[in-house]
Write a structure and sequence with these properties.
The protein is an alpha+beta fold. The protein has a domain at about 15-75 and about 120-195 and about 295-365: FAD/NAD(P)-binding domain. It has 14 helices and 27 strands. β4 (about 85-90) and β5 (about 95-100) form a beta hairpin. Bound molecules: flavin-adenine dinucleotide.
Length: about 550
């Protein structure tokens, strides 16, 4: 083997991360937080400019904040709740409104469940913020303009074939582990022969990214998404920033049309129809085709190579769960990888990533697909079922939509699409990395998040008092190790324990009793993993028992 261009350190274990999209960057930052160096490569020379995602949900913001990426700062970079707090069902942007719904939980009430409610942050802004942290992190060797041609699991290391797009030089480098965060078309996934389950091509869209100040036209009717129903318009407007950044998602048929058919003139005409008003100064920034899929990889791991983010699942954007699912993937993977690399856990711990994360991706996929299909109910309520009479029916309904109860009912039926609080915060794990996990209940209502202290659930958010200050419980727990959150009369662990012990009533205070909160006696405790999921519950703290549970969770000796 020739000398590797990307030289892994002899002394520190290293992970190669292929793809510096949001998920790859978060993986590198999380690994660094756990003390692991990584090499992060991307074939792109710059951050993505197309504003794809906008919904960065509460759990993703919590993850960011736990590793020093201020969630408050991120939220300031996003749209205000006034601008991004609603979705609207309209004929055109400035035309008839058939109904509106709140967009996810951005209200004050959400603060009872999370310190950082969802914010609409354009993907490039989110990625650039992550990139600032990546560039400032000495544990991350970040290289743009480097493409990974293939990864090969060699048993005790990974060989990566890399090419510099600048010089054209290629080389092979070896790493301890690799994470493929190379997006929906993942070349790595394909080269590993990992199949996807679920439909590959559901519908096709052109993402027409344009700059225009449409704020004066949306006065009194702000929203983040505008679903358009005027005959001949059809599609969705996404308002990333009402004053400048918009996308028109325009359905198209790549079998009968070519991307080149959509020049600026044609795109401007489509935008004008969607807006329903003469356009102010408008620039078409980019037009990119995009196919909606609903797929989950059959495997998330091949030996020392892991899939994460869109490489592992292609979730329809109707639900805003793409990046957010990926953030959960790498939060789950990185602490496990770090534990194995530090020799604290057995390799089998790494098998639990797929066991825990695949069901989350499947649920998110299923609901997002359902959301995408449900919009057709509203289409039917407005246009009827007979294509020949559609224009006639629409003209009558549009005269006075209030006369048609099926329109209001179809708007109401879209609610779960725009309130998936339980999917965002309520997912649980059941694997060998949870001691005596509770069987995961089927999701009945994606909006109904019920905080739980059961093994497998994420610890509930609480506003606690610490040193006289009101803080989220999250701020009292380390995010890089295990915590034993113990009742006031629980025994102490040994001083040399690797687990941080945090005591209810001493390290922080809360208005409810420990027992009311957790259902455990004051002698009891919950063991919390570095990713915030409850690994075990104890009626009393017996250090030997805690050690045994840790050994089981971490697959020591397996
Ligand atoms: C219109 C639209 C709206 C969306 N809205 C939301 C939303 O509101 N919320 C949400 O959570 N998600 C949303 N999504 C989904 C979200 O955009 C994706 O889930 C997200 O980009 C996935 O991140 P990723 O890092 O896994 O992959 P990507 O963002 O695709 O990044 C992959 C990176 O890998 C690099 N790469 C690929 N192959 C190689 C290689 N061989 N070598 C080196 N580098 C490589 C690429 O250059 C790229 O930078 C939306 C998507 C669309 C299209």
């Amino acid at each position: 083997m020739r000398r590797p261009r990307v030289q892994p350190s002899n002394t520190s274990p290293q992970v190669l991360i292929v793809g510096a999209g949001p998920v790859g960057q978060l993986a590198a930052l999380l690994l660094s937080h756990h003390g692991i160096k990584s090499v992060l490569i991307d074939k792109r020379l710059t951050t993505l400019s197309a504003p794809k995602a906008h919904a960065i949900n509460a759990r993703t913001l919590e993850i960011c904040d736990s590793i020093g990426i201020s969630a408050e700062r991120l939220r300031q970079l996003g749209a205000s709740a006034n601008d991004g707090g609603n979705v609207r069902f309209v004929s055109t942007l400035t035309g008839i409104e058939f109904g509106a719904l709140p967009y996810e939980r951005q209200d004050e009430g959400a603060l009872a469940y999370t310190p950082f409610p969802l914010s609409n942050i354009p993907q490039p802004v989110f990625e650039e913020t992550l990139a600032d942290h990546v560039r400032a992190d000495p544990m991350i060797d970040f290289r743009r303009g480097v493409e990974c041609l293939s990864l090969h699991d060699a048993g005790d290391h990974v060989d990566a074939s890399l090419v510099s797009l600048d010089t054209g030089e290629s080389d092979t480098a070896c790493f301890d582990y690799a994470i493929a965060a190379d997006g929906a078309g993942s070349r790595i996934r394909q080269s590993l022969d990992i199949d996807m389950e679920g439909p590959e091509a559901l519908s096709n869209y052109l993402m027409i990214h344009f700059s225009a100040d449409l704020r004066p036209l949306t006065q009194g009717r702000r929203g983040v998404l505008y679903f358009l129903f005027e005959p001949g318009v059809n599609g969705t407007l996404i308002a990333y920033d009402h004053s400048k950044t918009w996308v028109l998602m325009h359905p198209w048929d790549p079998a009968s049309e070519r991307r080149e058919d959509y020049d600026d003139e044609r795109c401007l005409a489509l935008i004008e129809k969607a807006v329903g008003h003469p356009l102010p100064e408008t620039t078409v920034e980019n037009v990119s085709p995009w196919t909606m899929s609903a797929q989950v990889a059959e495997e998330y791991r091949k030996g020392r190579i892991f899939l994460a983010g869109d490489a592992a699942h292609r979730i329809p954007p109707a639900g805003g769960l793409g990046i957010n699912s990926g953030a959960g993937d790498v939060q789950n993977l990185t602490w496990k990888l770090a534990s194995v690399m530090r020799g604290e856990a057995g390799e089998a711990l790494l098998d639990t990533c797929a066991v825990e994360r695949q069901p989350v991706a499947r649920n998110n996929n299923e609901q997002s697909l359902h959301n995408a299909m449900k919009i057709f109910d509203l289409m039917t309520a407005l246009h009827g079922v007979d294509p020949d009479k559609s224009a006639e029916r629409y003209a009558v309904v549009a005269q006075d939509p209030g006369r048609f109860p099926e329109v209001a009912a179809a708007v109401e039926a879209q609610k779960p699409h725009f309130d998936s609080f339980d999917l965002q915060l309520g997912y649980r794990y059941a694997s060998s990395a949870i001691f005596e996990p509770v069987p995961i209940p089927a999701i009945e209502n994606v909006s109904d998040y019920r905080p739980s202290w059961d093994a497998g659930a994420h610890f509930p958010h609480l506003w606690v008092t610490r040193q006289g200050k009101t803080q989220p419980l999250q701020a009292c727990l380390p995010a890089d190790g295990f915590t034993l959150l113990a009742g006031s009369s629980a025994d102490s662990l040994a001083d040399d324990s690797v687990i941080t012990q945090v005591r209810f009533g001493t390290d922080f205070e809360y208005y409810k009793s420990w027992q009311d909160l957790t259902g455990l006696p004051d002698s009891g405790a919950v063991l919390i993993r570095p990713d915030g999921h409850i690994a075990a519950r104890f009626d009393r703290v017996e250090p030997g028992k805690v050690d045994t549970v840790m050994a089981s969770i971490l697959a020591r000796g397996a």
